[in-house]
Description:
Blueprint: H1 8-24, H2 33-51, H3 54-73, H4 77-91, H5 96-112, H6 116-133, H7 136-152, H8 156-172, H9 178-193, H10 197-213, H11 217-233, H12 237-251, H13 257-273, H14 277-285, H15 289-294, H16 298-314, H17 318-335, H18 338-354, H19 358-372, H20 379-405
Helix pairs in contact: 1-2, 1-3, 2-3, 2-4, 3-4, 4-5, 5-6, 5-7, 6-7, 7-8, 7-9, 8-9, 9-10, 9-11, 10-11, 11-12, 11-13, 12-13, 13-14, 13-16, 14-16, 16-17, 16-18, 17-18, 18-19, 18-20, 19-20
Amino acid sequence: MTRPKLTSQFVQTMDANLTYWRHRRTQPLPLPPEERLAELRNLSFALRYGLEYPQTRLKSVELLGHWFEVFELHGLWGEWIQIMERAIQLCETDDPFLTCKLLNRTGFLYRLNRQVPIAIATHQRALHLAEQSGQAFERTYAHFFLSDDYYARHEYSLATEHGLMAVAGFEQLGMLGPELAGTYNTLGMIAKEQGNYEVVEQRYAQALALWRQYGKREKQLYTMNNLAEALLSSGKSEAALNCLQEALEVLETTPNKILETYLQLMRGRAYFDLQDFARAKTVFKQIDTLYLQQTGLLLLLGIVLNNLGNVSLEMEDYAQAETYLSEAITHYRQVEDELNLANSLGDLAKALVSQGRTIEAIPHYKEALLLLEKYPQNAWARKLFAKFTAAQQALDLETLERLESG
């Protein structure tokens, strides 16, 4: 980054700008998403310059903490990572406590940005430094973040181990609020992937009670979305819809495009499970895919397209299903999400078979099965593997019978 010439007037102007952003944090952001994103990018610009000079560096790092959750919730992870990396580079030799904090938060952003191996390495580095410098607080946070990281990599034993260590650490520190709620939420997600739905509902209930108690509405909505997904997975579609309706009412007081996308995706899935395909399609079509493209949220965009493809399959519009699913597959490959990729490959194969293009379908089933074999601990992967194996075997048998009769 090219630094402007340092003068006392420039430093004073920059310091005043950072002071403005410190006060701005206590005020609501503009409601229109485009205005909100523009304002956050102005803040990014101020922090990039503020970090470069010793006179304004500490205030800039302080603002990184104040605004961190806002950037997290608005999907600007790649942009914030660059600023956090520079802060670590500039502060690493001066303050082990500050460095640990920056490492933990940067690793969290790496995970959100689908850079899981780097997230794990960053959090392991934070854990090591925290243990060396006797920082129980940041050590516990590192365990919490590592639980999320290993969950994202489908390593559920390690995810559970770090999650339980985080619970013990937060309890020992007397931190029985939002931090503990976040850990319960993660343990609920792990249990859901393992198909242990009784534990799922218990963990989410623990998290929700704490989110509500401490007024963390955005976090509450994420957990309500997770709970709705668990209810759908255990066949409780009506209960899931009730949960989502409550969440959407809360969302009206806390506008957030990403949260709205998650909740609408889950609401559409609930209608899909109830076989109300027309209503499911309407909900999925209401999602702002342009916003997802502009903010680089390709995983969410892929899920929307996949779900529209599934609705088209059920409504027997096979050509449209093929289009949606092919686009979803492109995005899943970009973000390297193998489970969602396998799911869409199997659904695309079904769309091709339904159009009489059996030969084209077989390679998609084979690729899907190869991907799913990597995740034996994942309940959804096991379910998809059984489903696609049966479908491929039926195709193989049909092809064999056709050859024998021909």
